[in-house]
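Onboarding guide, step 5: your first structure request.
Type a short instruction followed by the sequence, for example:

Predict the 3D structure of this protein.
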Amino acid sequence: MKTSPFVAQPMPLQTVMLKVVTALVPGILLAVWAFGIGVLVQIALAVAVALATEAACLKLRGYPVKPFLLDGSAVVTACLLALSIPPLGPWWLAVLGTAVAIGLAKHMYGGLGQNTFNPAMIGFAVLIVSFPAQMSRWAAPLALAQPDLGALAQIAYIFTGHLPLAFDAVASATPLDAVRTGLLQHLTLADIFKAPLFGVAQQWIAAGYLVGGLYLWQQKVIRWRLPLAFLGGLGLTALVFWLVDSEHYASPLFHLFSGGAMLGAFFIITDPVTAPTTPLGQLIFAALAGLLAYLIRTLGGYPDGVAFAVLILNIVGPFIDQYTQPAVFGRKKKGAKA
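The system replies with structure tokens like these:
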């Protein structure tokens, strides 16, 4: 028989971060299967720079290094940023983006729990705006590469930029790029998971993130409102455009399983620091982010708008929180009848 006090104990931060990294594993493994060892190289670079930057910032601010370094938050930020970088992107992309994410977006705002913007998305935004060419060079999946670009060749390309003589290029159009340029329009559910059709295996990777996200929900690390509202906002907006003009706009399923939709829904927009805390506020926040992500994808200058949508909504998040506060127990809402 249980006795009082019946107070739920919060999950330790280190445990939360470990579960988040665990949830990323299915997507990471599928990304390695699709693109090769370059994915792991980018993650290793980002994690190393994240820990070094975190330690340096903590030292400069006079904080103890070990407790904060071991909480896992810097590792999660590094992984999210690395998974947003082309697997064969030059090494300095991961280094620069991670240093900005940890040093500028996190510690310049006061450190863990004080940041206004999602650090990983700040790092990504700086990279995509500053180096659009390098950030757009996504490699073709290994299944389509002719000849196969081996592990050592991938590592050499990341650090030197030189390809073996048998290669003249490794870049391939992403699914979102293909849709924007009109190469792909009429898509069935089966088509969405045919990697050769798109030239990349983003759809299967997105499915891996979905599995990881469901694990986080089952473990009570995240709640259902933010991911469901984000995917709902993105999917419903895509549905309206698709029903109005299916000749020019891709289906909702395509948008849900392309780009950073699943990663954003379960691992980015659920950041407890930068998202609203009220139930209604979370629904509004995430739905607007999904709507804005679609508009940027289809009408904006970038193929994927998840990062920019999240950062823009981070600005208005506190206001959404302020105006969606539930009535205090024992008090009536303004305008309520006696």
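Each response can be followed by summary notes, for example: DSSP finds 17 helices and no strands in the chain.
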